[in-house]
């Protein structure tokens, strides 16, 4: 996992930064909601013009880069429980719902751990009442408590997006 994207962002930020080959891999995890699409040629035409759209794309590109750097450091420095909390908080922010679809196997891939490790972490969070789970779904029950047990990376990412107005 390098970054999460929700209603505030876009996929393919590399195109804005000059990548015309579309390298990278994208996985849509929370399938609810509409997704707007813009052809690459139209996107490039619009971002070539000075104005609000180009400015927003530049700010979003900066925020995405900062998020990727913070997540890389987080993955290297923090334990799986803290990283899991950060990830759940980021998803919670982007879906605007307390309850969302998320399978443990996918979460294991995003955290770079085996699925049984995710089961242990989620069981501990569930035991403290921070989340509830049922097959393929997670519900954030006590958000402030989830923020408290997360590492500082969640707040750093959130604050960077807020500072940039995203």
Give an account of the 3D structure.
The structure is a single chain. The protein is mainly α and 166 residues long. The chain is 57% helix and 7% strand. It has eight helices and three strands; from the N terminus they run ααααβααββαα. The chain has a three-stranded antiparallel sheet. The protein is elongated and about 55 Å long. The mean pLDDT is 89.
Instruction: Name the overall outline.
Output: elongated
Which class best fits the helix and strand makeup? mainly alpha
Distance between the termini: 21 Å
Order of helices and strands: HHHHEHHEEHH
Strand order of the biggest β-sheet: 1-3-2
Unreliable stretches (pLDDT < 50, length at least 5) are none
The total of helices stands at 8
In terms of quaternary structure, the protein is single chain
Share in helix: 55-70%
Q: Averaging pLDDT over every residue, what do you get?
A: 89
Radius of gyration from the alpha-carbon trace, in angstroms: 17 Å
The total strand number stands at 3
Q: Per DSSP, what share of the residues sits in E-state strands of 2 or more residues?
A: 5-15%
Largest sheet: 3 strands, antiparallel
Task: Draw up the topology in text.
Elements: H1 13-16, H2 40-47, H3 52-77, H4 80-95, E1 99-101, H5 104-111, H6 115-127, E2 131-134, E3 137-140, H7 143-149, H8 152-163
Antiparallel strand pairs: 1-3, 2-3
Helix pairs in contact: 3-8, 4-7, 5-6
Distinctive features:
mainly alpha; 8 helices
Brief overview:
By secondary structure, this protein is mainly alpha-helical. The protein has helices spanning 13-16, 40-47, 52-77, 80-95, 104-111, 115-127, 143-149, 152-163; strands at residues 99-101, 131-134, 137-140.
């Amino acid at each position: 996992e390098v970054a999460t994207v929700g209603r505030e962002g876009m996929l393919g930020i590399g195109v804005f930064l000059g990548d015309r080959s579309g390298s990278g891999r994208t996985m849509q995890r929370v399938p609810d909601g509409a997704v707007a699409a813009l052809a690459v040629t139209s996107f490039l035409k619009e971002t070539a013009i000075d104005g609000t759209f180009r400015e927003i794309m530049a700010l979003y590109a900066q925020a995405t880069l900062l998020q990727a750097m913070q997540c890389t450091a987080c993955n290297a420095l923090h334990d799986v429980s803290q990283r899991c909390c950060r990830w759940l908080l980021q998803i919670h922010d982007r879906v605007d719902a307390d309850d969302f679809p998320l399978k443990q196997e996918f979460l294991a891939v995003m955290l770079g751990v085996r699925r049984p490790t995710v089961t242990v972490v989620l069981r501990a969070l569930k035991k403290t009442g921070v989340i509830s789970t049922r097959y393929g779904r997670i519900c954030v029950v006590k958000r402030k408590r989830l923020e408290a047990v997360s590492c500082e990376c969640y707040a750093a990412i959130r604050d960077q997006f807020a500072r940039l107005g995203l």
